[in-house]
Write a structure and sequence with these properties.
Radius of gyration: 19 Å
Number of helices: 5
Shape: globular
Strand content: 15-25%
Helix content: 10-25%
Largest sheet: 5 strands, antiparallel
Oligomer: single chain
Order of helices and strands: EEHHHHEEEEHE
Strand order of the largest sheet: 6-5-4-3-7
Length: 247
């Protein structure tokens, strides 16, 4: 789910993970199966329509990448981040649902249709598919995030890390979407570090001072019981480039 969102039709919450001990060296062997009585497809995908969706996604990714800049990693990331903002409208009806809005296909195929648009998981998985296609090392990240609209408890959220010149930086394509059709990303959460201030001015009630920083308002959570970890995020945002600081 985290490393291969191009398998966009798979709903990991509907898959049972079973561990069996190997008889020779007692090493766990993981087996996957659909939960009893359920398909492991996201709602909306069937064996009949899946080939069409897969073809549409592959063709769309090819078109997007054909228009992408080449050579400069930051320009490529900015282009992909902006593409998601310009071509998507956040689906407020998709929050918490097990459906199309949570998968990469929604972020790549919805074309500003609010009914099929992505939630944060759709934005983040779509960006990972595109970054993978561009050959840029990256990670899908899941955790708890806080802003002035979801205090005091925050919300489950997904975003991305990218590696540039050996260091890791964060970007949040969902919260960078200004919510205005055909407008590029705001870049408030573009290539930031854990100490980057992404919230300025007076803090809302119930928001602590540490929540000004990206590391305080985006808190990555451990990945299940599998011993997996996220890359270590840089403390600082990506340094000044081309005369303008990317904050």
């Amino acid at each position: 789910f985290r490393d291969h969102p191009e398998y966009f039709w798979i709903d990991v919450s509907r898959i049972a993970f079973e561990a069996d001990a190997d008889s020779d060296d007692n090493t766990p062997s993981w087996h996957l199966s659909a939960m009893s009585g359920e398909s492991y497809f996201y709602e909306g995908f069937t064996e009949e329509n899946l080939p069409t969706y897969r073809t549409q996604l592959d063709e769309a990714v090819s078109r997007i990448m054909n228009d992408a800049p080449t050579g400069d990693t930051v320009l490529i990331i900015r282009y992909l981040n902006n593409w998601l903002s310009i071509h998507n409208t956040y689906n407020v009806n998709g929050m918490g649902a097990s459906n199309f809005s949570r998968c990469a296909a929604s972020g790549i195929l919805s074309e500003n249709d609010v009914q099929t648009g992505p939630v944060c998981y759709g934005y983040a998985t779509a960006l990972k598919v595109l970054l993978d296609k561009a050959g840029i090392n990256n990670a899908f990240v899941e955790g708890q995030a806080y802003n002035d609209k979801n205090l005091p408890y925050g919300e489950r959220h997904a975003w991305n890390y990218v590696e540039i010149d050996g260091a890791w930086y964060a970007l949040d394509p969902t919260w960078d979407d200004p919510g205005i059709l055909n407008r590029p990303a705001t870049e408030a959460y573009f290539l930031v570090g854990s100490e980057t201030e992404t919230i300025t001015g007076n803090l809302p009630a119930n928001m602590t001072e540490d929540m000004r920083r990206f590391g305080g308002n985006h808190r990555a959570t451990p990945i299940g019981d599998y011993g997996l970890t996220y890359p270590e995020l840089s403390k600082n945002a990506y340094p000044q480039r081309g005369g303008s600081a990317l904050q």
